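dumping the sequnces here before i forget
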Amino acid sequence: MGSPQRALVVDTSHPSPAGPRRSPSGAAWSAAPYPVLVADPAGDLVDLNPAAALLLPEAVGGARLRDVAPGWISDAHERLTPRSAVAVCEAGPRAYGSVGRRTFEAHPSRTDDGSVMWWLVEDTDRRLAEAALDSERERTAFLAGASSALLSSLNLERCMDVTAHLAARHLAEAAVVLAPARGGRYPATYCRSGGEATHRQVRAVVADVPGLSEALRGFPPVPSRWIDPASIPSWLVPEDFPGPVGSAVVTPLPGHGVPAGALVLLRSGRQQAFTEHEEVFARLFAARAGAAMSAARMYAEQAAVTATLMRELLPPRLHSLHGVDFAGSYRPSAESDHVGGDFYDVHPGTDDDQETLVALGDVCGKGLEAAVLTGKIRNTLQALLPLAGDHQRLLGLLNGALISSHHTRFVTLLLASVIRRGGNVDLRITSGGHPPPLVVRTDGRIEQVATRGTLVGVFWDITSTTARVSLAPGETCLLFTDGVTEARGGPLGDEMFGQRRLETALAHCAGMPAEAVVEHVRMLAEQWAGSGRHDDMAVVAVTAPRHAHLSAVDGHTAGGYTA
Amino acid sequence: MTAVDPAGPERAGLGLVRDRMWAAVHAGDEYRALDVVLDALRSGATVETVLLDVIAALQVRVGTEWAAGRLTVAQEHAVTAIHERVIAALAHHPDHRRTPAAPAGQITVACVDGEWHALPARLLAEVLRRRGWAVDFLGAHVPTPHLIAHLHRTGPRAVALSSSFPVHLPTAHAALTACQAAGVPVLAGGAAFGADGRYARALGADAWAPDARGAAAVLDEGLVRPDPLTALQAVDHLPHLADQEYTLVVGARGRLVKETFTGLEDRFAPMRAYDDVQRQRTAEDIAHIVDHLGTALYVDDPELFTRFLTWTAGVLQARGVPAVGLDPALELLARQLRDCPRACRTLALARETLRLHLPASNDPGPGDTE
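..and the predicted 3d for all of it:
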């Protein structure tokens, strides 16, 4: 921003304005509005006009140019003179520099006797305008860059890092970003110019720092303010800050109706204090940083709420229970949805002699609305667990609950009560309007379980039949929703996956662990669907373990395998 | 991202461990498999060695066994499921759990959307955990919006993105640029990115590693956060996409497969005797060819397509299917895509290579081998 004190940018591309070539003592140039100096090849000042005398009061004819004119003129003169003999008529390169607070362009031109006339053309105003334009451009670029840097992340800590980093690089020697306290601690990010941002939680009394608690509260709106460097507590200064704080500004970071935090800018004594212009600029930056930080905070809060609700709606992770292997997989229809209308649950029996109840179902509809209903149905089923010995009664009660609720949706459902007897696993399976499960025998045969029944939540009277199935070690009973068989795609793009392909795929799964069966079916169905649309898909495998445990332990427990 | 470092004096006994382990997983006996691993640990092997030099090595073997027709896809899943269980058990193995003083930082490990081979990424996640990183392993088949939401929520140091199949490269590219736009650097790994990482570079990944040890070394060194000011659009890395050939091939996938299929029936006599399953397989093979052609156009590397085809030829021969059906399929595709110069060049190069290699080709191809 300051004008160069000793600039010597030499430019040979422009010819100098035509000067008098004949006589150094013409009256024309002495009256010229530009200061003009005439110096001979030896570096002595031959002549000068009144304008030059006014500019350089010490200059008189006969003096050494070096003694009376700024160094950048005498330097340029020395560089020019050796070539005088060959290039009398040649226009020399211009030189640039300052005289006092003013800046000039010096244009040389030759006289016949080999001297050089230096025409000094003032460009102070242009240079100031250019400097102002450059700095304005730099700031605009900085703000634009800051905006895109801040917009790139919705992570609060990351936003604070970016804010501290940018502020330390462009606005001060060090910057500290404070976010509103959580549990008595303030998330704080420190950054020194050219350094890395560090993040930590500080327990501090912000009221000790003038203006800081107001800025952090965000209301009433307060301007950024200067604070006495002596009142800056040590926790507010980055550990590697060079020397004592010379000047400090506290700027609020305005959020969208919520306080986003405060920005503290620090300079050591060596650097000059903040100008008013810089303060205004810091506020512009703070507005952007505040908006980004409050957006990140709101996103984090929303994400936390969503995650909490989702956790209740997502199907559980399955593992081995009471000597039976369970595995499940769930894929909602739309990519961006985490939940949908398919669900499954496994309610373990209280001990090895009690049946474990598996429920897998499909609520009509997709997305969050369907998922909310699956949550209600799962809760109802949980409450009805004591009646799991009688599938028909359980389905009847669920049916009544659904009909009398305000939902117009219905559900198809599979219930399977599972118990291990010796090496075998026995199941009682009942369908409430749901596609019957498939059983893979050790020899690769596929059997459809003979159960059928009315869907749940539509008719007052529902009926169903319960089938009994016994699995030998290595055999699997697969419960699935129609999203699997009705997935559309395939190599030709518009075929249904279909029951037959599912059965063919399952035939290869004899003797496989439950997880592998589920993974295999899921992969084939989803690869079939490809990028095409598919309904929710849920799959649960109940498998009689092939290699018996030494003791029936839960496979997910640490050390459970060790003999 | 699997690692095999067979040479190395301290790993001399590993060949035996691998053979015993292979026998156990091949028989589907997870308890015996775990015993083999625990034995190896008792005789001084580290958990990392077991993960990378036994399990990862066997996963590679799964791929080659499958390509040679000695293993079905279902068996591949069974082996993988046992490996997963062994890894889970090792994660809790008390003797080998390292608890570093302070976590080195947070890393997200994920597979590209559509990528089912989660084991390489899982192994990396375990290795990184043991080296002190806090790891979020998102698993196989992670939709890009879920991945980005996770990054916003957790703000990790870096994302390790895994893909085994080259056909996922376009999706990987979208995921990669989205992560970078969110200010998180991406380390790419897996067979999809090429044996030398060329596709990782072409797609603008911040780093690439050939295996889990290499990935850990890259992360230890630290990755520079992408500068959001220079965040690029996907097409900036791949100016050749401007010719729209990739878009065209992907958009017309179903039609290309269908027409090639019916064309083959007319021209290739043995196909008329195919049963339903064989016809289905043929349609799937053609779909794979079209998918790989699209990917080759996406990364502008005809070699990718050629490598896939020579590998496919080997796979078909191992199953007693005449690979001579490939050339007419390519010719039919070339005819349908005659207005696409890059696609035609790619197909011509592949046909030329097939002519030279058949019937002796048995090149381990891209994809299935982790």
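Chain B has 16 helices and five strands.
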